[in-house]
Amino acid sequence: MPRLPAPPLPKVLQPKPKRPGTTSAPERGPLTEGAISTVDWLDERMSLSGGIRWMLFRKVPRGINWFYTLGSATMFAFLSQAVTGVFLAMYYQPSPTGGAYESIRYITDQAFLGQFVRGMHKWGASVMVILIFLHMARVFFFGAYKYPRELTWVVGVTLLILTLVMGFTGYLLPFDQRSYWATIVGVNINGTGPFIGPYLSDFLRSGPEFGANTLSRFYAIHMLLVPGAIAALIGLHLYLIMKLGISAPPWLKAEDEPESAPEPVEA
Ligand code: HEM
Q1: Tens-digit pLDDT profile for residues 142-158
Q2: If you average pLDDT over residues 54-62, what whole number do you get?
Q3: Pocket of ligand 1 (CB under 6 A)
């Protein structure tokens, strides 16, 4: 992918041109001065400006459209889940002897904006699953999984599986009748899988029976293990996208190809 020349600094950070006939330094407001020295101070210590330019100033192919925003939309759905999840975790108690159910009731009925935050998290989960499938469909139908983006696709498939695991483990947390019995069915279905199925269901249940530790196991998977893995893999996914560049829409590629193959040269 061709690199762009380094872009100019934003206008606010550029020194004003000197007026003809003046010798004094160009005037800048205290805010601009403050911004420049803070950015300079940080950059002198961390040398981040090169990396940030590499990340943000990239060429994108002609003809890209709204379908190319589905990956970013999925990422924002994940960020929204992370933020609302942190607030829910402040009140949620993963205790199977009434604590979980009661804490969810407290969040819904009494906590300030609790119903709103819980609603965002609950509906956001479905939104993220819908967006990830739409993004995957865009990548598939545009042929964007082909060389050299195979690894981006493989990381994406892992992200899809982990997103579904988030939905499955989150479903148990309200610990009402529906979530309890639905999860038993789900764990049993996992147990029927070939080779690893029985180990997987034992791991999920935290033992051979659905017991006191199962809820803690699901909570740890739901709020620590899987979100951490998703965050790391999104980082890898985005790195690959920046490294390889965005693929051009397939119809453009077809347009750019010569009308017919060149005549073979006779020996
Ligand atoms: C948490 C889930 C995901 C996030 C946050 C994410 C994010 C992104 C972003 C921001 C892009 C850049 C442009 C675009 O939106 O098309 C992208 C591209 C890409 N994604 Fe994802 N993605 C996710 C899941 C997936 C899945 C499930 C797959 C496929 C199985 C996938 C495969 C790809 C591929 C191959 C590209 C390169 C497309 C191109 O160069 O045109 N991603 N992703």
Answers
A1: 999 999 999 999 999 99
A2: 88
A3: 68, 70-72, 74-75, 78, 132, 135-136, 139, 144-145, 149, 152-153, 156-157, 159-160, 163, 234, 237, 241, 246-247
